[in-house]
Amino acid sequence: MPKMKTNRGAAKRFKCKKNAIKRGSAFKNHILTKKSPQRKANLNAPKYVHSTNVDSVKSLLCMA
Q1: What are phi and psi for residue 56, nearest 5 degrees?
Q2: What residues form the membrane-spanning segments (predicted)?
Q3: Contact in structure between 43 and 25 (CB atoms under 8 Å)
Q4: In 3, 26, 29, 49, which residue has its Cα 20 to 30 A from 36's Cα atom?
């Protein structure tokens, strides 16, 4: 039986940490002038994959 391949798009978007899967945040690439500094700071804060999606992300990363 061949080895399972990791989904390369998912591998670039998610990082596996000890207890959670870290993800990026949307809406922080352009049109930043109208966004408040507080909003931009919140976008830079670490985000994690929701518990309902963890199993599907793990299957893309060949972890489960």
Answers
A1: -70, -35
A2: none
A3: yes
A4: 49
- Please name the amino acid found at residue 6: T
In contact, 4 and 51? CB cutoff 8 Å:
no
pLDDT at 33: 97
Tell me: the pLDDT tens digits for 25-63?
A: 999 999 999 999 999 999 999 999 999 999 999 999 998
DSSP E strand boundaries for 2-57:
14-16, 21-23, 47-48
What structural domains and CATH numbers belong to the chain?
8-61 (4.10.410.60)
